[in-house]
Amino acid sequence: MAASRGNNSNPARIPALGLRTFALILLSIGVMYLDNRENHLDAVRKTIGAAVYPVRLVVDAPVRFWQWLGEATTSRNDLQLELGRLNAERLLTNARLQRLTALEAENARLRALLDARARVRDEVRVAEIMAVDANPYEHNLVINVGSRDGVYDGQAIVDANGVVGQVIRTGLMTAQAVLISDTDHALPVEVNRNGLRTIAVGTGEIDRLELPFLPNNADIRAGDLLVTSGLGGAFPAGYPVAFVNSVTRIPQEPFADVSATPAAALDQVREVMLIWSAPPVSDVPGDAEDPDDE
Amino acid sequence: MSLATRKTQTMSRGDAGRRTPVIVTLVVGLMLTIMPLPDAAAPFRPDWLALLLIFWAMQLPRAWSVGSAWIVGLILDVSHGTLLGQHALALCVIVFITVRFHLLMRVFPLSQLTATVLALLALYQFLLFWINGVAGVSSPLVAYWGPVTTGTLLWPFLFMFLSGVRYRARSRG
């Protein structure tokens, strides 16, 4: 016990403890109020975030090192197999891309005929997911780009297969994104087959989305691909979101019970793409805005 | 400012030497807090920083009190991306209780101390739950009771380890 007494030889009360605590509690409540209402405290968040950045880097380092080690010690045989696979994949993708160029030209022509505004191509940038856990109450991830790189709140994030989520908080060098599987996330989608519009809501399970607002007679079936409809304004239209995996129609219920599996492997992705898209056509009339103008 | 002068008065001797171990443990605690865990284990991640602050507030209540807890809480809020001030408030409250009763807690046997820590952690999570409720953040309940359980189970070991750290830091200084 003597060892733990330290130089607090006078065991008197800590001065003004209650008062200080009270003041800090009031301060916390004030800060929470400001933070919840608007993003008044973005600067504070960014400053502290920059201070925490080295810690995030250190936590991320072993994972990165492990990956690097894995890559450095891959056998020649594996590399050759991988190379073959990638080459084949590239050939296929290139073939598809050729058609895409033609289609894009055709689309632009048709849009010109219809007198609609030309679709602006989305700009894309690759970001890496940092191996750090963020909010314990939400499905989210931290990426290694921030406002320094032009990332903004609400920006869409996709991976090679589909939509991953969107940025919710932008720091200077990192940004936090919410996954589409989060319970608080809802995403306007349409069925690729027939253009049926609805909303895909996260369930809190990483591999399941729900479509709660489809009537029993809606034309939707298992295997349908859902793509972003672009209606919310946050996501550009036409990115794959999920595949419907079950449709249960209960006659006495007003809505069908539809669940879908995200197209992106939300829990496995390591690299994601950030999309800088032009504002939706109908929203802002007659301006061709710089995509990374914030 | 009065806080700073008080600190320099009480900690004039071996100030840096006294503070380093605490800061190092807190930084390590922050790392453990944001370290990735498998999805199944993530809800059971102990509240490392809460445990560390309880220990240090109990042992060095003049240097590590509600003010430091508040700052650590803000850092925690930013790195978690939760409502700014949420963890700050919760940590502030449990550290207040710890400092208020630190003399009592020092003479508790380990079993009783662990029970106290259980209560403190439960209060901490309850405050977080409450604030989440007011702010409209919904999350599975396991995210609240998981850390309390593992934190309590961990406390005896952490306590012995940190006592060792403290003893060594003192004998070196």
Structure description:
- The complex is a heterodimer of chains A (294) and B (173).
- Chain A has 294 residues and is α+β, with helices and mostly antiparallel strands.
- Chain A has a domain at 186-262: Thrombin, subunit H, CATH 2.40.10.350.
- Chain A has four helices and twelve strands, in the order H-H-H-H-E-E-E-E-E-E-E-E-E-E-E-E.
- In chain A, the strands form two sheets. In chain A, strands 1-2-5-4-3-12 form a six-stranded antiparallel beta barrel. Chain A has a six-stranded antiparallel β-barrel with strand order 6-7-8-11-10-9.
- By secondary structure, chain B is an all-alpha fold.
- Chain B is built from eight helices and no strands.
- Chain B has helices at 2-10, 15-34, 48-59, 66-80, 86-100, 102-107, 110-135, 142-172.
- In chain B, helix 3 (48-59) packs across helix 8 and helix 5 runs antiparallel to helix 7.
- Chain B is globular, with a radius of gyration of 16 Å.
- Mean pLDDT of chain B is 84; it is low at 1-14.
- Classes of the chains: A alpha+beta (294), B mainly alpha (173).
What keyword list fits this structure?
heterodimer; A: 294 residues; alpha+beta; Thrombin, subunit H; 6-stranded antiparallel barrel; disordered N terminus; disordered C terminus; B: 173 residues; mainly alpha
